[in-house]
UniProtKB/TrEMBL annotation:
This is Homeobox domain-containing protein. One of its GO terms (molecular function) is sequence-specific DNA binding. Residues 1-11 have a biased composition (Basic and acidic residues). Belongs to the HD-ZIP homeobox family. Class II subfamily. Residues 21-81 form the Homeobox domain. The keyword Cytoplasm does not apply. It is found in: Nucleus. Residues 23-82 bind DNA.
Length: 146
């Protein structure tokens, strides 16, 4: 006789889905009015002190902890969105530098070969403002010939 042992997995309450009927915690569903008021408060101040949190919770008929968690999540989403914007800006800047590097490599190769070359300047830089750090950087415009 060969017997097989079956491994049973225990599911802890914390690993259950929030939507399951046996879950101890339910996902907070806000009304449109509550959401609008939270968003408006966030625009004024992205973090609340204890008194502000308590007042907002009373006004929204929520617990202060729910307001606190909403603000934490909103700050995290804001930071993630800003990171995505910064990443897109840096990718574009990197692409510009890569194109400029290729142009310089072609110019060096042409100079080493001794061929007469017509110098075509790379993209004329225009100034752009980095959305995150608000520093001025170069943004590419169409190239011109000299």
């Amino acid at each position: 006789d060969v017997s097989f042992a079956v491994k049973r997995e225990r599911v802890s309450p914390s690993s259950e889905d929030d939507d399951s009927p046996n879950s101890s915690r339910k996902k907070l569903r806000l009304s449109k009015t509550q959401s609008a008021l939270l968003e408006q408060s966030f625009k004024i101040n992205s973090s609340l002190n204890q008194k502000q949190k308590q007042e907002l919770a009373e006004e929204l008929k929520l617990r202060p902890r729910q307001v606190e968690v909403w603000f934490q999540n909103r700050r995290a989403r804001t930071k993630l969105k800003q990171t995505e914007i910064d990443c897109a800006f840096l990718k574009k800047y990197c692409d510009t530098l890569t194109a400029e590097n290729r142009w310089l490599q072609r110019q060096v190769k042409a100079l080493k070969s001794g061929q007469p070359t017509y110098v075509q300047f790379p993209a004329v830089a225009a100034l752009a403002l980095c959305p995150s750090c608000e520093r001025v950087s170069a943004a590419a415009k169409p190239s011109t010939t000299a």
